[in-house]
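User: Design a sequence. Structure:
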C-alpha cells in the first residue's frame, strides 16, 4: 500500500469513528433504530491490502466504540467477525471478479455491490444485537432491531459512499 492509501484509510477511520460517536449515535428513530455507518471503514478497506492490518484496525474501531458507548465489547466482536468474513462475502457477491481484484465498492451501485453491502451489514448487526441482548427470550427483539437498523444503515451508507465518492480523473 502506498502512502496516499494509508493516509486516506487513517482519515476514513477517524472521520467515520467521529461521525458515529458525535452524530449517528444521537440519531434514534422510534428510540429503536440507529444507523451504524462506521462499518464502511471495514467494507471500503482496499481488497489487496494486508488482511492482518484490517483485522487489527477493525478490532480497534470496535474497541474505541465500545469505550465510548460502554457496550462491553459487542462492537469489537461484531467488527472483528465482519472483517474476518469480508473475503467470503466478496467471493459470494462478486465471484470471479473478486479473484482478480477488479472491483471497487464505491463505483456505480450494482446488484453485486448491493448484495455485498447487505450481507455485510446484516451480519454485523445480527452479531451486534445478539451479543447486546444475550438472552434467548430477546431473540425476536434482536431480529427486529437487526432488520430495522440494517435498512437504515444501508440507506445512510449508500448516501455516504456516493456523497464522498472520489472523482474520476
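Assistant: Done.
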Amino acid at each position: 500500500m502506498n502512502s496516499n492509501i494509508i493516509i486516506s484509510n487513517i482519515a476514513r477511520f477517524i472521520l467515520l469513528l467521529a461521525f458515529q460517536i458525535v452524530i449517528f449515535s444521537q440519531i434514534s428513530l422510534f428510540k429503536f433504530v440507529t444507523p451504524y455507518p462506521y462499518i464502511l471503514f471495514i467494507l471500503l478497506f482496499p481488497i489487496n491490502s494486508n488482511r492482518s492490518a484490517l483485522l487489527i484496525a477493525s478490532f480497534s474501531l470496535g474497541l474505541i466504540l465500545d469505550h465510548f458507548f460502554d457496550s462491553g465489547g459487542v462492537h469489537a466482536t461484531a467488527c472483528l467477525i465482519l472483517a474476518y468474513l469480508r473475503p467470503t462475502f466478496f467471493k459470494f457477491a462478486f465471484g470471479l471478479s473478486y479473484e482478480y481484484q477488479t472491483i471497487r465498492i464505491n463505483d456505480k451501485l450494482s446488484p453485486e455491490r448491493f448484495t455485498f453491502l447487505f450481507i455485510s451489514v446484516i451480519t454485523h448487526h445480527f452479531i451486534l444485537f445478539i451479543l447486546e441482548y444475550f438472552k434467548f427470550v430477546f431473540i425476536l427483539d434482536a431480529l427486529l432491531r437487526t432488520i430495522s437498523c440494517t435498512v437504515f444503515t444501508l440507506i445512510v451508507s449508500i448516501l455516504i459512499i456516493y456523497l464522498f465518492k472520489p472523482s474520476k480523473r
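The chain has a mean pLDDT of 85. The helical segments are 3-22, 40-44, 51-69, 74-94, 96-99, 111-133, 139-163.
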